Every structure is written in C-alpha cells, then in structure tokens.
Amino acid sequence: MTPRYAADDGSESTPRGSRWSDLDRPPLNVRALRRGLIRPGGLWSELDLVQRTGSTNSDLVARAAAGKAAEGAVLVAEEQTSGRGRLNRPWTAPPRSGLFFSVLLRPHEVPVARWGWLPLLTGVAVATSLSRTAGVDTALKWPNDLLVTVGGEERKAGGILAERAGDDAMVVGVGVNVSLRQDELPVPQAGSLALAGAVGTDRDPLLRAMLRSLEDWYVRWRAAGGDPAASGLQETYAAGCATLGRQVRAELPGDRSVVGEAVAVDGDGRLVIATREGVREPVGAGDIVHVRPA
C-alpha cells in the first residue's frame, strides 16, 4: 500500500457544504491571513498578496537581493503566469484556482550542507497540513511532488521549488491545485484537491494550515541544527514518501539513467536506489519516474 499522510478528524477543517465548497473561487483575505499568521516571536514577519505575477519565487529572490525582505517574508499570488516546477517545467493555473506562494528562510544555525532538506521539509509540512485541513490523503513523490488519488489513479496536485537567494537565504515556493476541474487540468496526469474529494476548497484555512505547519517543522529542524534524524524529519518524510518501495527510473544529468527499487532517503536527503546489479546508488538530482509493474 502506498504510504500516505492520512487525514484525522481532530484537526482544523473546512466542513462539507460551506459556501465555497461548490468550487467558487473567492479571493484570499490578506488581512485575516496576516492576523492569523504574523505574531511576535513567530517566524512569519510579513505577508503580501499580489493579484498576478510571473513567479513568486523570482519576485521574492529579487526582494531578498535588494535587501527588501526579512526572514519569514511570505509572498502569495492569486495567479502565476510564469510559475516553474522542477527542471524549469511551467506551472500555470486559472486565477484563484490554487495556492501559489513563496517564503524566505535564513537558517543561519544550520550548516549549508543541510539546506538541501528545506524542500523536503516543506513537502512534509504541506502534505500533512493538507491531509488534516482538506481531508484528502496525500503522499510525496521524491523529491517533492504532492500526490493525490483521483478515480483510483495517482496524480500530481502540487509541487515545491527551492532556490538560493544570495549566500545566506533560501526561497521556497509552493504550488497546489485546489479547485481545478477536470477540463482545466494542464495535462491528464495532473490532479487537484477538489478532484480528490476535498471536504472544501476555501483557500484561506488551507494556506494558514500550510504556513503554520511549515513554521513548526522549520523551527524544530533549525533547533536540531538541521539534523534530519534528530528533528524527526527524515523518518516522517520516509513514512509519507510514495516513491519508497517502488520500482523507479532516475533520469540523471548527462543522459544517464538508473533503474531499481527506491529503498531509502539518506541523511543528505538523497534517494537511494538498489539496482539489479546489487549497487545502492544515492541520487541527489534528477527526474524520477515511478515504473508501473509489468
């Protein structure tokens, strides 16, 4: 059985039958979001909402480079026209149909060698919070695609992209399809929370839950000096990673590929693949394909 972050009944949720559960797309309430997320001593220092932009990641990286963004800055867009996934793949969706945001992090207490865990940490935070708040079981495809089940089929409903912002910061971007309908999907393999049976598509509680979960995991990881084992991050990521235990093909730089079973995520956040030749090869970058059983 694919490991998943299962929803639990004791969490904040959007009840079925709310006035937005019919897939209407109201704007985000930026004032309410600020009241709910920005507090003295908390991680989130500012939250800005723009109606339309090319990429929240690019915008926040530029702000950081100009010295106009502190740690904990959050930039949210109602629509992205040039959003990017991994390997510079385009990520677009209709206005207000999803959640598209970036955050600026400066984990000075953590060795730079461990910063590679930040996108995986974000994946854990997003997946667990959406399972609780939207009532949709989710899983992570390494390194950080968010998977949901639509009609018995595993589909990608979200993704994460991390970029360095100078020598001392990282910008992490998140994109989640919330209310996309079948005829709006960019590719047949895509999905959305609505298509996966979400109990509601009100984006305000979803965004609050994601950012609160991200803050909790980031604070825990930073307090452990970025140690993925001591912070519980490595174990939690592995528990919700749909890639582990599967036959995969890793498309690597230089037109090289590795085929085998994904058996672990190591201490550096790399996917370990056991090949038929008996080699355990760690993969730190590349495109992972889940191979269907013959």
Give an overview in words.
There is one protein chain. By secondary structure, the chain is of the alpha+beta class. Helices cover 21% and strands 27% of the residues. The protein has 5 helices and 14 strands. A 7-stranded mixed β-sheet has the order 1-2-5-9-8-7-6, with helices on both faces. A 5-stranded antiparallel β-sheet has the order 13-12-11-10-14. Helix 3 (118-134) crosses helix 4 (203-223). The protein is globular, with a radius of gyration of 18 Å. The two termini are 17 Å apart. The model is unreliable at 9-23 (pLDDT under 50). Pfam families: BPL_C (PF02237), BPL_LplA_LipB (PF03099).
Write the layout of secondary structure elements.
Blueprint: H1 30-37, E1 46-50, H2 56-65, E2 73-77, E3 83-84, E4 90-91, E5 98-105, H3 118-134, E6 139-141, E7 145-150, E8 153-164, E9 170-177, H4 203-223, H5 233-239, E10 247-252, E11 256-265, E12 271-275, E13 280-283, E14 287-290
Parallel strand pairs: 1-2
Antiparallel strand pairs: 2-5, 3-4, 5-9, 6-7, 7-8, 8-9, 10-11, 10-14, 11-12, 12-13
Keywords: Biotin, Ligase
Pfam families: BPL_C (PF02237), BPL_LplA_LipB (PF03099)
GO molecular function: ligase activity
